[in-house]
Each structure stands twice: as structure tokens, then as C-alpha cells.
Amino acid sequence: MGAAAPRMAERPDAAAALPPPATPDPPRDLDEFLAGVERRAFRLAELSLGSREDALDAVQDAMIRLVRYRARPPSEWTPLFWRILRRQLTDRHRRQAVRRRVFAWFGRDGEAVDAADVVPDPHADPSRRHHESAAFAALGRALRALPRRQRECFLLRELEGLDVAATAAAMGCSTGSVKTHLSRALAALRGHLEDWR
């Protein structure tokens, strides 16, 4: 017991010697913020919706809605943008569900193939591109199989990199709920993606 006390005393000194983690500088204006978040938001939306076109539309709509709040302080833009995008994604999921039901009733699947999506990239290694495409598709299917709140939490925390507090603000829930949703999402994804390990 007595030997453990000096080690405990050494830890605060060692931690004090470490430099504080670097925090990114806040954006100077809304254009800079939107340029910095654009690609991450698109990837998140594409994974959530499973459609490139719908993802582009959702991100564009979220950015347009955020412009209404440009007078707010830059520190509020990040959680506000992700909350707006989350609502866009939820609305599009609902519309897709209705569309699927209507098309199923008419005996159609409602999926159209875009010719640009099937043209191969001449610069990529075909086997690697196929593997990456298959892995991305498997992740997208696994994410879409998650309950909505778990999917949103996973996308905001793991792909966007928001901290627990910012994720809670974006989702409109407590930090404890964020931790619970993330834990459940990770457990479900591990089960769905076991073949890709």
C-alpha cells in the first residue's frame, strides 16, 4: 500500500509535463466553416442514406439552412449544423420509406441505375477499388440496419469526431444517452461487420 502512494504522486507531475491537446482554431466566417465541414458531412450523409445524390441534396439543404443562423457565434455552428443535417437525414429516411412502400405496391423497386456510377475509374487498381467499394457498401448496409438514434450517434462521434457534449447538443439528448447509443451501435456493427475484420 505504501509503495503505491509515490506512484500516484508521480502521475500528476507527469501529466502536467504533457502539453495540452491542440484545439483547432474556430473558423473566421461561415464560408470557411462550411468549406471545412463539407466533405465530412457528405460522407456521413452518404453512409446514412446510401445514395450519393440524396446525400448531396441533404448536405446542401443543411448548409442553406445554417446560413439563416450566420449571426450566431462560430462556437455554435458545429452542433447546430449537425443537428440540421441530422434532421435532414431523418426526413429523407422517412420519404424513402414512403417511396419504397408506394413502389412496392405498384410492383417496382424504385431504384434507378445511373450510368456514371457504373463507369470504372481508369486510374484505380481494380481489385483494391472493388474491395474498398464492397467494404464501404457493407458498412453502409450495417449502418442503415441500426436504429436511427444509434446510427446518428455513431456517425457524429466516430466519423465526424465530435466529442460527447457536442454530439449530445446535436442530437438533443444527454451525454449519458450518447454513450449508451454509441456503445450499442458499436456492438451491433461488430456483429454485422465480423467478415470484414
Descriptive report:
It is a single chain. The chain has helices at 4-17, 30-49, 52-67, 74-105, 115-118, 126-145, 148-159, 164-171, 175-192. The chain folds into two domains: 26-111, no CATH class; 129-197, Winged helix-like DNA-binding domain superfamily/Winged helix DNA-binding domain (Arc Repressor Mutant, subunit A, Orthogonal Bundle), CATH 1.10.10. The radius of gyration is 21 Å and the shape is globular. Mean pLDDT is 77; it is low at 1-23 and 112-119. It contains nine helices and no strands. It is mainly alpha-helical.
The gist of it:
The chain is mainly α and 197 residues long. The chain contains nine helices and no strands.
The figure for the number of domains is: 2
Helix content: over 70%
User: How many β-strand runs?
Assistant: 0
Q: pLDDT under 50 segments (min length 5)?
A: 1-23, 112-119
Q: What is the residue-averaged pLDDT?
A: 77
Kindly estimate the percentage of residues that lie in beta strands according to DSSP.
under 5%
Termini separation? 42 Å
Number of helices: 9
Describe the sheet with the most strands: none
Along the chain, the helix and strand elements come as: HHHHHHHHH
Radius of gyration: 21 Å
Class from helix and strand fractions: mainly alpha
Shape: globular
